[in-house]
Write a structure and sequence with these properties.
This protein has two helices and 16 strands. The two termini are 29 Å apart.
Length: 263
């Protein structure tokens, strides 16, 4: 009888089977790669252009150009560190290369343009310039099912974007490789503020790795040309926020985690 009671005491009651709860990542290193779409920066419908200057004044009839510049889509790669002091809310620091190359467009509008204007416009049409844009961002994270196989999350943050090519300055060359200044940026800025809103999920690949997929909207403030320039070649400018949709996937390396429990 005593032996039977001992065996029964070791058997879980019906409906009370033991449940294993997975670990909860608290410190995570993330490596990501993806794509970022572009945006049209500015368009000048009618820009007078003088092909020949002499003694500081135009020595030939001015031509009329239609000028435009856009940020092309590009790849992005980056790394981030996330820390979750609790089960749901955390913080993240990220550095990423965005690229965002500049692409120019040019069309001659007058019927009899000069030869330099035709050559310059043809060379500017489709010309691309690398900006080498790099972003630094700090974000707040809110995640669900922190111990689950699949954990969705929301992200919101602010950051800075640095770049090495002015979105205003515009230079063209003719067939003899002579340079013509079209727009001058008299107060170049190389840093822009950015706001980030995104959502994604992570999926466990084992105890120390997780797959990550994220979509975000990166809203970045860039300078832009707002009208035609005069003889000074310094155009009127302004600033506005541009939306860039970014889709990334990557690998989480779990550096620290709270161990799971059996209930």
């Amino acid at each position: 009888m005593l032996l039977l009671l001992g065996l029964l005491a070791g058997v879980p009651a019906p409906g009370r089977a033991a449940v294993q709860v997975g670990p909860r990542p608290t410190l995570v290193l993330t490596l990501v790669a993806g794509v970022a779409d572009g945006a049209g920066l500015w368009t000048v419908p009618r820009q007078p252009f003088c092909p020949v200057y002499s003694s500081g004044s135009c020595a030939a009839p001015s031509d009329t150009l239609r000028l435009a510049r856009e940020q092309s889509s590009s790849i992005t790669i980056g790394a981030a560190v996330s820390y979750f002091p609790g089960p749901s809310v955390g913080i993240q620091a990220e550095m990423a290369y965005l690229g965002l190359p500049l692409r120019d467009a040019c069309a001659v509008l007058n019927l009899s343009p000069s030869q330099p204007s035709r050559q310059l416009c043809a060379n500017m049409q489709g010309a691309s310039h690398s900006t080498g844009a790099i972003s630094f961002a700090a974000s707040a994270l809110v995640r669900g099912a922190s111990r689950g196989q699949l954990s969705p999350y929301l992200r919101g943050g602010v950051g800075l974007v640095t770049f090495d090519h002015s979105p205003i300055e515009l230079v063209g060359v003719d067939s003899a490789a002579n340079s013509y200044q079209v727009f001058i940026d008299d107060s170049p800025q190389r840093i822009a503020v950015s706001f980030i809103a995104g959502a994604g999920f992570t999926m466990a690949l084992g105890s120390a790795y997780r797959f990550r997929l994220e979509a975000r909207d990166a809203m970045t403030r860039f300078q832009r040309v707002t009208g035609a320039s005069d003889a000074s070649l310094v155009p009127p400018t302004g600033a506005r926020f541009f939306h860039h949709f970014v889709l990334t996937m990557g690998l989480d390396v779990v550096l620290e985690q709270k161990r799971g429990r059996r209930y």
